[in-house]
Write a structure and sequence with these properties.
1164 residues, alpha+beta, Glutaredoxin, 5-stranded mixed beta sheet, 37 strands, 35% helix, 16% strand
């Protein structure tokens, strides 16, 4: 193969993927055309030279295929066979993020890879090495890795010529653009204009596609410029190949402007454009959708689009497997019902009654807009809310309209800082929000509870400002002494300090006495925390209630940012009520909101997804097809829409109760079918052996697979069978052993322990449970998972205590939430397709579609600094009002279409110059449909395009017919006007850093008329020098950018390095690198002295779960032309908290000056 031409290699590669369908082969060719895999191969080569070769004891570079075991290079198959036999406990391989790992099929294991197979791309020895390693991997259950190595035969590295970029010839000298202001006569005859237009039309068609035609640029008058957009759009729409015409016209517009100005605009065409501007979209705007997924203009890039095409094909294929055509699949995932679903997400059980009573107080209100004197100057008329304000400004009205309760742990430094710094500042600035606090604690004798009781005592007996001073004193003590959590001593010192400085208390109590005195407050607070399902308080991820609505905030989205949209939403609600005269001056809005029928008094934390319980949803392809999964439904004649699986240990009291509550729920929800899956808390699901007798799970399994068993039967069994709680075991009754309550209507099936029949039967039941459990694991569920799965959404894992708390009412709320947000939406989209599904598979199809849609939303990667990319699909261009003349369809959507490109485009702007040729290339792929809505600017004031443009992008590589070598992708300009002065430039993907490598003249000042006959052309070659690694960095403690911090990117050998500064603006930084495996570190000096890296953020998101105990990995693999975005977290080292990277080292304080916690108070 080393003697093959490039075309022969290409043809052979295409032949090898002939098993793919036509569109799959087209995507393969497109990838080869873009050289998408080149950065990954280069990364392998870099790592090979800098990390692998230096680690070996001996190295032979002529060994084209070899295996690494420990630090040895094994070049022959026989030597490899011998080595594998004799080597013991070989060292594990350091895996790369992009490694190709071969795992044994038979065994699910987490064993580490110990062998690496290095191969030259076309070596014939690869097959024998791979075949033997594959067999030994299955036999011995080991992993091995395949990596490329640099070629041993081609020592001279040829340049790789790329595509996927644009080239412009910008008009630098603009004298020709001066508008021709000569008098224009308006008395031209209509017949003369028609004759002129007719002849120009023929000439224009010829000029657009004939590069030999002499080109000139003629000046235009104002009236000609004004309608250029409409005329160009009409010319494109009427052409035989609109996309081709738009591409040529946009790219060479300056020389076609005069000819286009002579086109006569049809009145119908003009009115359709104007109607769309008025009712559909803004004139001149452009937008792109792929199967309804909106693209940012920065994403209109061949490398990004190529990756998206493969993802879209995979998505459409997954829906086709459910019985839909590809046309139906595109319509389904982009149905407007799904995109409108977000409006309903906050309607189910998201508002809770958080009011307390004088008898059971647990809320600390810091301010009151209706009572406090600081708001005396504000109007009290609620109608004031109808007056206009600046965007984002709240109306200063003396009414408690906005009520915010924060749940805070008063032993946490983060919580105290939030209250004393942010909340107190907002109150002082008279922000019209009523702020409150609910203290979180899990135990009555904890430091958190002690601080809450002390604060409550101060607030009740002195005032709220003094209570805030108490919290501020605690915070000062903690900061001064390097504490992140308060201690009993901190609380006591702060409490005594406040009491000693106050003259308002006749009797000063100790903390112990305060604890006893305020027991009702403690009980009420603990009861509220339990009722709201708040089990833990993470200072990084907190909870708050805004007018009873639960909101969660995080490091990525602080509480103020989380609150803002809800403030605006609440303002609109009150404005609507005020406008409709539904409220008056005496109206209590807060109590009105919390008295609505939909307000819940109890919250189950598993129902709505949150930071603690994030949304997890899977397709469950394997499990859903099992015959062992037996469903029960209250009415078998109704087509079910919901699958409910209860996965628990039915030999325990808690597991049995969860199953019973689920059955009681299913009894009154006929569209839900329920399946019970038993898993033991203590043993694996193996065949039962050496047991005294059958467990309840065995009996239950036998009954489940009995044809006579119904949902009503299950209810009877679960209601009248007692399972002894594990905490109440005695010597006579084993956990899970069966006792019954008999009645006249139901008698349990008698199964006597100890007989051979029973033991054999129990083994068979256990096998059924094992089959389901194994399938669940294959579908991605954890081995030790116990919980609920509703239509693919995973609820849990649930502890034994969680099982007890999950009641029928919780199942009702869970079902209502899922129905509103997912199930009913999927049902409607299927109904819109007029698709009739078989009754037995309807629920499975809805479940899988739900998972596919939700997982598709999760693929949207938001920028860490702004959360603006839409997650829902919507073909909004289909809502265009008028489409008779301005809509263009290329390759009508059919049952073979996997991608529909939707365009709203202004044909005369720079985006069209880039977008038109890209879409033109994509339209030639099998299975791609294009829908274009022309959207020109109706009245132009100046020429819209002042450059000639070419985009280098093709759907497949091209080869020389004689030599078989690949043709170099080139941007070629011909027949350009000779008079103007040009400047040549390239437009690449944002991550590329390119420079001019070769040029035969000054590219900033190109005057074609001055070129001599000896040099008839202008040529230039650009070189891709590096690819950007960029990102945002912040200090994990202060949440602010570490200004002046210096990062360093180093290769494995340390020979190649690059560094950068972290900017104060959003912590942005850039690093330049070539494809390869790199390590991110801090530059030696002040940066490495003061800071340490907590997490490199290689996945593009800040990892707030990094505990700072040590960096897990500093490896960054740059394997794409799209570059890389990282989000490092750093923190200052102990003792460096007061140091600044940009400032010289500060002298240390005298250690003897520290005299304990009291010194922190005395120094204030």
């Amino acid at each position: 193969m080393h003697s093959w031409t490039q075309q022969q290699v290409y043809d052979k590669a295409v032949e090898r993927v002939s098993f793919l369908d036509k569109d799959g082969i087209d995507l393969f060719k497109l990838s080869l055309s873009l050289h998408e895999a080149a950065p990954r191969i280069e990364a392998y080569n870099q790592y090979y030279h800098q990390a692998v070769v230096p680690s070996l004891t001996q190295y032979d570079d002529q060994c084209d295929v070899w295996v690494q075991i420990d630090n040895k290079q094994i070049c022959s198959l026989q030597a490899l066979i011998d080595a594998v036999k004799h080597v013991e406990n070989p060292a594990a391989v350091d895996l790369l993020p992009f490694d190709h790992i071969i795992r044994p099929v038979k065994k699910d294991t987490t064993q580490e890879a110990t062998l690496v197979l290095y191969t030259d791309t076309f070596s014939p020895k690869f097959k024998e090495f791979y075949t033997w390693l594959k067999s030994i991997a299955e036999e011995r259950e080991i992993f091995f890795v395949i990596r490329y190595r640099p070629s041993t035969t081609n020592s001279i590295r040829n340049s790789l010529y790329l595509s996927g970029y644009g080239v412009e010839m910008a008009l630098k000298k603009t004298d020709y653009l001066v508008i021709d202001d000569r008098d224009v006569q308006d008395d031209k005859s209509k017949s003369g204009i028609k004759e002129k237009i007719s002849s120009i039309g023929k000439k224009l068609n010829h000029v657009l596609f004939d590069a030999s035609e002499k080109a000139t640029i003629e000046p235009l008058i104002s009236s000609e410029i004004e309608t250029l957009g409409l005329k160009a759009a009409q010319y494109i729409a009427k052409s035989s190949d609109p996309l081709e015409t738009m591409s040529h016209l946009a790219q060479d517009f300056p020389k076609y402007a005069k000819s286009i100005s002579d086109v006569v605009v049809d009145e119908e065409f003009k009115q359709e454009i104007l109607k769309n501007h008025q009712m559909s979209f803004q004139g001149g705007s452009s937008a792109v959708w792929l199967n309804g997924k909106a693209l940012e203009m920065s994403q209109v890039d061949p490398f990004h689009i190529s990756r998206v095409l493969r993802s879209e094909k995979k998505l459409i294929k997954s829906i086709q497997q459910l019985g839909f055509s590809s046309k139906e699949a595109i319509e389904l995932i982009s149905d407007s019902v799904l995109s409108g679903g977000d409006d309903a997400k906050d309607t189910v059980s998201d508002v809770f009654d958080v009011r307390d009573t004088p008898e059971a107080p647990f809320i600390t209100w810091w301010n009151d807009l209706e009572e406090d004197s600081r708001y005396d100057g504000w109007p009290s008329d609620i109608m004031e809310i109808l007056k206009p304000t600046y965007p984002g400004q709240l109306h200063p009205i003396r009414k408690n309209i906005y009520n915010l309760i924060l749940v805070e742990d008063l032993a946490s430094q983060d919580s105290l800082s939030r209250i004393t710094n942010e909340i107190r500042t907002m109150i002082k600035r008279t922000i019209p929000i009523r702020f409150a606090l609910v203290s979180f604690f899990s135990e009555d004798n904890s430091v958190s509870a002690l601080a809450a009781q002390a604060l409550h005592h101060i607030n009740q007996n002195i005032d709220k400002d003094t209570g805030m001073d108490f919290l501020e004193t605690m915070l000062d003590l903690m900061v001064s002494n390097g504490l992140t959590r308060a201690t009993d001593e901190v609380v006591e010192i702060a409490f005594n300090h406040i009491l000693s400085s106050s003259n308002d208390l006749e009797q000063k109590l100790s903390l112990g006495e305060v604890n006893e005195l305020h027991k009702p407050f403690t009980d009420a607070t603990r009861s509220f925390i339990t009722r709201m399902g708040i089990k833990e308080h993470n200072p990084k991820e907190g909870a708050m209630f805004f007018n009873g609505k639960l909101l969660e905030y995080s490091e990525e989205k602080p509480w103020a940012h989380t609150l803002m949209p809800h403030l605006n939403e609440q303002t609109r609600v009150v404005q609507t009520m005020a406008y409709n005269n539904e409220i008056n001056t005496e109206f209590d809005f807060y109590n009105h909101v919390l008295s609505q029928p939909n307000v819940a008094t109890k919250r189950n934390p598993f129902i709505q997804s949150s930071h603690i319980n994030p949304l997890r949803i899977k397709v469950f392809d394997t499990t859903s097809t099992l015959k062992e999964l037996r469903y029960f439904q209250s009415d078998e004649n109704i087509i079910p829409s919901t699958n409910l699986w209860i996965i628990s240990d039915f030999n325990t009291f808690n597991g049995l109760k969860l199953a019973l509550e689920a059955v009681l729920f299913a009894e009154f929800n006929p569209k839900t079918r329920i399946a019970l899956v038993h898993k033991s808390y203590t043993t694996d699901q193996q065949v039962i052996e050496n047991k005294i007798g059958p467990k309840f799970s065995d009996v239950l399994c036998k009954l489940i697979y009995s044809d006579e068993t119904t949902l009503a039967t299950l209810k009877e069994i679960l209601q009248h069978t007692n399972i002894i709680p594990e905490t109440e075991n005695d010597n006579d009754v084993l956990p899970g052993e069966i006792t019954t309550q008999s009645n006249n209507e139901f008698e349990p099936i008698p199964i006597l322990p100890g007989t051979p029949v029973v033991e054999i039967d129990a083994r068979e039941q256990s096998k059924r449970w094992s089959v389901i459990d194994k399938a669940l694991q294959e579908d991605g569920l954890e081995t030790d998972f116990f919980g609920i799965v509703i239509n693919g959404r995973i609820i849990g894992p649930l502890s034994s205590e969680d099982n007890l708390q999950f009641t029928k009412q919780d199942f009702d709320m869970l079902f209502e939430y899922e129905k509103t947000n997912r199930i009913s939406l999927i049902e409607q989209t299927i109904l819109h397709r007029e698709k009739v599904l078989p009754k037995e598979t309807t629920a499975d199809v809805i479940m899988k579609l739900t998972a596919i849609v939700e997982n598709d939303k999760a693929q949207v990667i938001q920028d860490v600094m702004e959360d603006h990319l839409p997650v829902n699909r919507n073909r909004v261009y289909e809502n265009t009002v008028a489409t008779n003349y301005t809509k263009i369809v290329i390759n009508e959507r059919s049952d073979n279409t996997f991608l529909e490109i939707g365009l709203i485009i202004n044909p005369l702007n720079e985006m069209a110059q880039k977008l038109a040729p890209i879409v033109q290339t994509l339209s030639k792929l099998e299975g791609v449909s294009v829908v274009i809505h022309l959207n020109p600017i109706s009245e132009l004031e100046e020429l819209p395009l002042k450059r000639f443009y070419r985009y280098v992008f093709d759907k497949e590589p091209h080869f020389d017919s004689q030599s078989g070598e690949q043709q170099i992708p080139t941007a070629y300009f011909a027949n350009l006007p000779m008079e103007p002065l040009y400047t040549l430039g390239v437009e690449t993907t944002n991550s590329w850093h390119v420079t001019v490598k070769e040029a035969n003249m000054d590219l900033d000042n190109i005057l074609l008329s001055s070129i001599s006959e000896d040099q008839p052309t202008v040529s230039a070659v650009y070189e891709l020098q590096s690819i950007l690694v960029e990102g945002h960095c912040i200090d994990s403690l202060t949440k602010s950018p570490p200004r002046g911090l210096q990062f360093e990117l180093a290769s494995h050998s340390g020979t190649d390095k690059g560094d950068t500064l972290v900017m104060a603006n959003l912590g942005y930084f850039q690093l330049k690198a070539l494809p390869g495996v790199w390590s991110l570190g801090l530059r030696e000096g002040r940066s490495s002295m003061i800071y340490s890296i907590q997490d490199v953020g290689a996945n593009g998101k800040w990892n707030w779960n990094a505990d700072g105990a040590g960096l897990q990995s500093d490896v960054l693999a740059l394997t794409s032309f799209e570059g890389m975005t990282i989000t490092p977290l750093v923190r200052k080292k102990p003792g460096m908290e007061r140091e600044d990277v940009l400032e010289p080292a500060q002298p240390k304080e005298n250690e003897n000056s520290k005299t304990g916690l009291w010194s922190s108070i005395n120094q204030k």
